[in-house]
């Protein structure tokens, strides 16, 4: 049965974000605030960068505020004025990406002013943004979210997230289903999915951790990965990406949300996260670490795979 | 020519075409996603969903081989792909926004260089359009001068009727030929009224005014505020029925390989990256500006048409909510 999810706190959250953005911009403690603004379509939202206190009223928070804005602090940061701290609106899931980026020396905590959002969940897809948040429309990542109230932000509105109904964890079930398959069946499943890939690279472009100045997969001298949207190159691309994100991806699931071909990309990332938890007791996005388990060696590491 | 085609007879038509050895391309589900693709039989057709990618791929595939090479000792063999081997195709269930973009693409693919890959497929394809009875608030065909019942680009156009089935109208010889080859399936119009067409909510753009502003504002602060959020993927261009840029790559080994033509997009940083390292479109707003300029100014300058049919795919699937209809509307009010 579909259950409605209570998002009534978002009105208070919106007001609090606006007030705080106005305060920090007018006192000059930040040069810009990255947040969400309403867009033309009913119920829609889009990322916005405001630099004037008078524009604070544009900021909103709703179930359509799906983006992980951390991406604007890496790849796109060239376009954001850097003469001072940058304020950013973060959900709990987004904060995990920021923690990871700090660990990888891409960001400094003191350069950021974090406005945390008490979150009741966001939509899985904004193809139709004017959609009520329910147990059927909520993003899969929100079904297993343990960070509805982000910790350690500079400002968090004093609003308690509502108790959300217990929702079925979709990733765990889907991973279990795939793990139960034979390798040939699994291969067939991913082949069908990757066949659809058109190499639009939306997955890469929204990923906070895909911050390489030049992606290996864009190189053609020498070519590392076939750039053509064909099965071989598509497989290579998605597997390279999953491996490169292993131990780093904190599960914002933006790659999966934006894929115009509906490829369940976060399944790969969650599977890798599960493996790293089992092998190294590592979970991404909780502490600022210099190196993830795949970037270092310890004598106590599991060696059983060496035959 | 006006005829009536029942739903069952539409299926029968497709099955007969397939049995005759024709390639029948129609909307179908592909690993959970609606896409245009070749049907094995009429049962696979999905008429109530706008395919995620546009119909352009029937003529201009995501990726196609244009030449193969092989090396035997010191001898290199080059083999062209022969477009005359492309199959006769019937493209069915094409929405007006998708069908209307196809003749717009004819202009660029038959301009100075005649692209035989595109043109041969065009010659060999009959397009059966389908009127829309549903629209969402990303649809804006009416804003760019089309409509949910516009037969532009269709050889034969189907309009769903209140009493079920379709009113068929032919617009070209190809369309008439399709009916004449299968007269038993098409009957005389039965007087049933068309279902009311969809009504996209946007107001009609003044495209002349938009172009005039674009003519005069290559440099403008508006580009920064419009595109600051653009993350530089190719989703908009790849889903677009009218975007047509491609890249040519050679892939293979020293011994054998292929030259391929792949979709490309002006949103990618690499699109204008020169071998020297210089990039004239060094920042994302310059790339996004090109998208708007190409659609509403450059193509108009060159071919007197606009490169947008208002399908709304780029709006629905932009990862960061960029809304081309809102942008053009804003420009038209400047």
Verbal overview:
The complex is a heterodimer of chains A (307) and B (334). Chain A has a 4-stranded mixed β-sheet. The termini of chain A are far apart. Chain A folds into 2 domains: 135 residues, no CATH class; 126 residues, no CATH class. Chain A is built from 9 helices and 4 strands. By secondary structure, chain A is α/β, with parallel strands linked by helices. Chain B has 334 residues and is an alpha/beta fold. Chain B has 2 domains: 156 residues, no CATH class; 126 residues, no CATH class. Helix content of chain B is 29%, strand content 21%. In chain B, the strands form 2 sheets. Chain B has a 7-stranded mixed β-sheet with strand order 1-9-8-7-6-2-3. Chain B is globular. The model of chain B has no long low-confidence stretch (mean pLDDT 96). The interface between A and B is large, with 48 and 46 residues.
Brief descriptors of the model:
heterodimer, A: 307 residues, alpha/beta, 2 domains, B: 334 residues, seven-stranded mixed β-sheet, 11 strands, globular
Write the layout of secondary structure elements.
The complex is a heterodimer of chains A (307) and B (334).
Chain A (H helix, E strand, L loop, with lengths): L8 H18 L5 E7 L6 E6 L35 E5 L1 H12 L8 E5 L23 H4 L26 H10 L3 H13 L6 H5 L24 H15 L8 H5 L6 H16 L27
Parallel strand pairs in A: 1-3, 3-4
Antiparallel strand pairs in A: 1-2
Helix pairs in contact in A: 4-9, 5-7, 7-9
Chain B lengths: L1 E4 L1 H13 L3 E8 L2 E6 L24 E10 L2 E6 L8 E6 L1 H14 L6 H8 L1 E6 L25 E5 L5 E5 L2 H8 L26 H10 L5 H6 L7 H5 L6 E7 L3 E8 L20 H20 L9 H5 L6 H9 L2
């Amino acid at each position: 049965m579909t259950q409605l999810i209570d998002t009534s706190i978002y009105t208070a959250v919106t007001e609090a974000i606006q007030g705080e953005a106005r305060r920090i911009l007018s006192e000059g403690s930040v040069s810009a605030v990255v947040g969400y603004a309403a867009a033309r379509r009913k119920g829609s939202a889009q990322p916005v960068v405001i630099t004037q206190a008078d524009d604070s009223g544009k900021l909103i928070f709703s179930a359509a505020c799906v983006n992980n804005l951390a991406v604007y602090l890496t790849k796109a940061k060239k376009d954001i004025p850097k003469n001072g701290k940058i304020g950013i609106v973060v959900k709990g899931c987004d904060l995990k990406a920021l923690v990871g980026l700090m660990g990888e020396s891409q960001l400094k905590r003191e350069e950021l002013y974090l406005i945390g959002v008490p979150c009741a969940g966001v939509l899985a897809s904004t193809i139709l943004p004017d959609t009520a948040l329910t147990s059927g429309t909520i993003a899969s990542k929100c079904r297993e979210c343990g960070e509805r109230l982000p910790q350690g932000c500079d400002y968090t509105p004093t609003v308690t997230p509502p108790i959300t109904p217990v929702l079925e964890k979709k990733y765990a079930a889907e991973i279990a289903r795939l793990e139960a398959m034979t390798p040939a069946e699994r291969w067939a499943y991913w082949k069908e999915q990757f066949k659809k890939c058109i190499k639009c690279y939306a997955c890469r472009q929204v990923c906070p951790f895909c911050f390489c100045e030049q992606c290996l997969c864009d190189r053609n001298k020498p070519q590392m990965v076939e750039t053509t949207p064909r099965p071989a190159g598509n497989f290579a691309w998605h597997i390279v990406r999953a491996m490169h994100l292993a131990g780093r991806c904190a599960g914002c699931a933006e790659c999966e949300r934006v894929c115009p071909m509906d490829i369940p990309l976060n399944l790969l990332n969650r599977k890798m996260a599960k493996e790293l938890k089992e092998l190294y007791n590592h979970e991404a996005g909780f502490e600022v670490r210099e190196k993830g388990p795949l970037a270092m060696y310890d004598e106590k590491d599991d060696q059983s795979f060496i035959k | 020519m006006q005829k009536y085609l029942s739903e069952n007879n539409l299926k029968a038509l497709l099955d007969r075409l397939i049995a005759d050895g024709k390639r029948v391309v129609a909307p179908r589900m592909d690993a959970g996603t609606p896409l245009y693709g070749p049907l094995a039989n009429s049962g696979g057709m999905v008429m109530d969903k706008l395919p995620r990618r546009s119909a352009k791929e029937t003529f201009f595939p995501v990726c196609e081989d244009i030449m193969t090479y092989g090396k035997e000792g010191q001898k290199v063999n080059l083999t062209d792909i022969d477009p005359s081997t492309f199959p006769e195709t019937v493209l069915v269930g094409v929405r007006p926004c998708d069908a209307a973009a196809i003749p717009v693409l004819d202009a660029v693919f038959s301009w100075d260089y005649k692209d035989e890959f595109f043109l041969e497929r065009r010659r060999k394809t009959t397009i059966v359009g389908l009127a829309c009875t549903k629209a969402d608030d990303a649809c804006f065909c009416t804003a760019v001068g089309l409509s949910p019942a516009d037969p532009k680009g269709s050889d034969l156009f189907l309009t769903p009727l209140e009493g079920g089935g379709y009113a068929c109208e032919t617009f070209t010889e190809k369309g008439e030929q399709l009916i004449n080859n299968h007269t038993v399936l098409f009957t005389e119009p039965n007087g049933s009224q068309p279902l009311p067409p969809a009504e996209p909510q946007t107001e009609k753009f003044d495209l002349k005014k938009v172009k005039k502003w674009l003519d005069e504002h290559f440099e403008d602060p508006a580009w920064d505020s419009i595109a600051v959020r653009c993350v530089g993927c190719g989703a908009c261009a790849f889903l677009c029925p009218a975007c047509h840029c491609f890249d040519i790559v050679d892939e293979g080994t020293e011994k054998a390989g292929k030259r391929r033509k792949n979709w490309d997009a002006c949103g990618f940083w690499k699109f204008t990256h020169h071998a020297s390292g210089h990039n004239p479109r060094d920042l994302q707003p310059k790339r996004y500006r090109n998208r708007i300029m190409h659609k509403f100014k450059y193509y108009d300058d060159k071919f007197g048409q606009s490169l947008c049919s208002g399908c709304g795919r780029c709006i629905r699937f932009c990862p960061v909510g960029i809304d081309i209809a809102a942008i053009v509307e804003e420009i038209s009010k400047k």
